[in-house]
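Write out structure tokens for Oxidoreductase.
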Amino acid sequence: MFKGILIDKDDSGYRATLQEINDDQLPEGDVTVRVAYSTLNFKDGLAITGSSPVVRKFPMVPGIDLAGTVEVSGHPDYKVGDQVLLNGWGVGEGHWGGLAQKARLNGDWLIPLPKAFTAAQAMAIGTAGYTAMLSILALEHNGVNPGQGEVLVTGANGGVGSFAIALLSKLGYSVVASTGRTSEHEYLKQLGASEIIDRATLSEPGKPLAKERWAAVIDSVGSHTLANACASTRANGTVAACGLAQGMDFPASVAPFILRGVTLAGINSVTQPKAKRILAWNRLTKDLDFALLPLISHEIGLSEAIDAAQRLLAGQLRGRVVVDVNR
């Protein structure tokens, strides 16, 4: 038996509860991992609360991230005792995820835990930091460099935004952070933001084209914010779109793309090939200031995760929530 959060839906409603789970309830997979740490992401918050139809089958263990130790392996790349991590691949949505003390998974979804990180540090980074790194790789692929001008980061207080600011700043970029929480200005400055703007300047309907400002953008918000970011991106700039905190809609025009040559780069963190995942995590070992991890993240126990999910969706939690599944 092991502890885990189990989401179920039946005639009595939708519910997420912490309970004892039997090993034989684990889904199919060729690697069983003794989980050390997981995380609480925006998607996990949606799954636990039922605020959005994220979960595709029931019962479901949420948790799109996990790090731990291989306990059983039928996969050629992994042996008992190996330290591994996982981001994405639909775990926590269509396959049982990391918010439990055990997970049985397809070994192809795993990558080795980089030796530079502890399991707790890897989960402090999690999908958020990994997605921020994928976004930076997309900017670099399109030739963006620090000498070209300011980079806008939207949703700056969230996990992706926090890591995007920290990484861009360390790489020498001038970063402008967009947030609606004035109380967090000092936090964003500590991460490396050179300027902070009110998200209200981007979140309302805007013009098809606005004054050129941004050399590049990392956007985790979507909707009007993404449309306005594109409208004010400089000629031949790149906008990396990786989230939908404001909405899934994109009320924009083609003007920035056909009149200024702006590139809109979609960032899919869920099904990236293994080589790209390893590249992103290796870059994180070099380009992230580890000293910022305690500032960006805080740790809770598995028993606290259900209550924390509500606060996460309400925008009351800063940065990353790391979950120690063994307390």
